[in-house]
Amino acid sequence: MYRFKSSKYKNATPKVPKKGEGWVLDVSVGAPQSFGNHIKASALYKAFSVDNRGGGSLGILPLDEAGKKSKNLPLLHAHSDFVTDFDFCPYDDGLLATCSHDATIKIWRMPEGALLGNDTPQNPEVVLNPGKSRIENLTFNPAVDCVLASATDNTLQIWDLVSQQELSSNLKHEELIQSLSWRGDGNQLVSSGRDKKLRVWDPRLSTNVLEASSHSNNRDSRVVWLGNTEYILSTGLGSAREREVTLRDVRKFNVSLSSSSGDSAMGVYIPLYDPDTNMLFLAAKGDITVHFWEVTFKEPFLSEASKYMGEVQTKGAGLVPKRALKVMDGEVNRVLILGQDCIVPVPYQVPRKTYRDFHADIFPDTAIASPAIAVSDWMAKKPAKALCKVSLDPEKRPKEGLTRTGHKLGTGPVPGALADDPAGRQIRIVPTDFSVKEAREDARPKPFPSEKPLPAPKPAPRTKVSCPRWDDPPSSGGSSTNGTASQNGDASSAMPPPSKVAPRARPSVTSGTGGMGSSAAAPTGDCQRAPAVIAQRGTRDSKCGCPSFDT
């Protein structure tokens, strides 16, 4: 049966660092009151709600920044009133959209490099004024360049950020809109509202294509489209204020495929979904638990894998992009929990015997950071090609890395980001010139110091040379008297060929201490070797009894 099928991620466990080793501390969050998630992350930055007098600021930090920030927290003074929601651009890690009770939408570009207290941008790149009512939600289109969706009261609006014009009209709920989510291909989006309805929209036609009843309690709700699939997941409250999670298929939208109810509480689950691994994380405002579920798209559809019981009461939650994970540590996802005065990273790690090698089985290729189609082509309903996919293996990453900044709105897809296959199949980018040393800090680690070094190469074999006997006759054509040849040249050069020299009887030799001492009987003839060599080696030739040495 399917329920007994092994899962790659079922045993993923949260590896939360200690409070002083990875947490952001001493930040004043307050009690944000809106339908947003209050913390978002790109592959470079994290933005979060802060409590200040004006109410229109956000805290901005590099993604891996930690420590106490009571005096040096960089603030983005974005609006004149409370910031209700914000979102990072999926194809530019430095582009941030914000909306507020002051009825404006602004697009901000983060400076490159480290952020200091006064390094946040002072002027927005784009300002939109949808009307006089406060804006509750916004979200970037994941595939179309410079397209943004926002919700003002009960009205859904689709924006072209370059022309600053509204692309769709007459997209309305009966009451306040509480949540928005795009389909993975960017062609449709779903919304949930206080009218207890889920609605699927086609923005290019300005039509409501599907509608279904959602949760019976309209206090709050969330909705997320599960990647580029036919499935939509919503969270809300039941009639007894019990938390509910519901999965639907858009092909049978009026019937829920799976529904789960939990304990009674005031806060709804914030759903965080990873389409690469089908991992779903649920964190609720006012709670200290993070639930990890798996989505299977067949019975039983939703299955709970683990719970993390923390010590921080949740004010908001967000998911880190796959391009920023520490894959060489086995980190398959990372949830950021916003607390009353801190930010807690909750990395999920798949257990392995060793993390020295990249485990491709738990890290599928992920989409490159680029829009798939320009807004003009999208509005004309031209088909969009699939985005290329890039490996998370540090040895196969592009030299420029997986982060991207500086995208100019309206320029369309990045060159080389789309698949050339006319069928639109997703392909991989395999760079040809890459060094592990050029990877980011999560590159392949060095061997542990405890490992045994490789054995040294064996030296070349040495040849043993014996001293010639002085009374042997020289080779033909040569001459030697009183050992002149052996004194002025190599000893072996005076040795006659073995075939021409008759062997002589070896004299009796008595070895002394350390070689040729005073008590040693000398062989026939005088040995021509230096006394220092004789004393150092202290070995004798097997034929003549003279001291021998190795070369």
From TrEMBL:
Biased composition range(s): Basic and acidic residues: 435-445
Region feature (Disordered): 396-551
Domain DUF1899: 3-67
WD repeat extents: 76-118, 128-169, 170-202
Composition skew (Low complexity), residue ranges: 475-489
Amino acid composition bias (Pro residues), ranges on this chain: 446-460
Family matches, as InterPro entries: Coronin, DUF1899, WD40/YVTN_repeat-like_dom_sf, WD40_PAC1, WD40_repeat_CS, WD40_repeat_dom_sf, WD40_rpt
Compartment(s): Cytoplasm
A molecular-function term among this protein's GO annotations: actin binding
Keyword Cytoplasm found: yes
Keywords: Actin-binding, Cytoplasm, Repeat, WD repeat
Family: Belongs to the WD repeat coronin family.
SMART domains tied to this protein: DUF1899, DUF1900, WD40
Organism encoding this protein: Ixodes ricinus (Common tick)
A cellular component annotation (GO) from this entry: cytoplasm
Name of protein: Coronin
Function, as annotated: F-actin regulator involved in anterograde Golgi to endosome transport: upon ubiquitination via 'Lys-33'-linked ubiquitin chains by the BCR(KLHL20) E3 ubiquitin ligase complex, interacts with EPS15 and localizes to the trans-Golgi network, where it promotes actin polymerization, thereby facilitating post-Golgi trafficking. May play a role in the maintenance of the Golgi apparatus morphology.
